Amino acid sequence: MEGVFTGGCQCGAVRFRAEKLGRPSICHCRMCQKAFGSFFGALVTADQAHLTWTRGQPSLFGSSAKVKRGFCNKCGTPLTYHAGEHIELAIGAFDHPALLEPQVQVNHDQRLPWIDHLFEKPAATSPEMEAFFASVVSNQHPDHDTAVWPPEED
């Protein structure tokens, strides 16, 4: 996929711009589960020659002898997967993640035993839940680049 894709961490300390992306995927391996704190990791390959860190840089953690994981050291957002010269970006960190629908599942044999039925569960909602979520004021960085973040106080 070619175009301009931007994203970054939750607090805005690390931002990126990618202009050439490969295959979006989800990975079920235990390391991705731990790195994302979730059921799987959603990643898309990036061409390093067309990847720019526009604010800050991710910190790296060696999750194995062959793989490093990039994250924001201020807010903890998972950002990257590095295996040698190969780099993947966390789909959830993009400003428009809906554009990056996963095309393949990696390490499918390591998926959690109930994952295939996850979205058969009923959606929970109530007036109390709706009121609570409507009252939440987000402190996270907006899904676009800004000249200054956080904004200066008047």
From TrEMBL:
<dbReference type="InterPro" id="IPR011057">
    <property type="entry name" value="Mss4-like_sf"/>
</dbReference>
<dbReference type="InterPro" id="IPR006913">
    <property type="entry name" value="CENP-V/GFA"/>
</dbReference>
<keyword id="KW-0862">Zinc</keyword>
<comment type="similarity">
    <text>Belongs to the Gfa family.</text>
</comment>
<protein>
    <submittedName>
        <fullName>Aldehyde-activating protein</fullName>
    </submittedName>
</protein>
<dbReference type="GO" id="GO:0046872">
    <property type="term" value="F:metal ion binding"/>
</dbReference>
<keyword id="KW-0456">Lyase</keyword>
<keyword id="KW-0479">Metal-binding</keyword>
<feature type="domain" description="CENP-V/GFA">
    <location>
        <begin position="5"/>
        <end position="109"/>
    </location>
</feature>
<dbReference type="Pfam" id="PF04828">
    <property type="entry name" value="GFA"/>
</dbReference>
<dbReference type="GO" id="GO:0016846">
    <property type="term" value="F:carbon-sulfur lyase activity"/>
</dbReference>
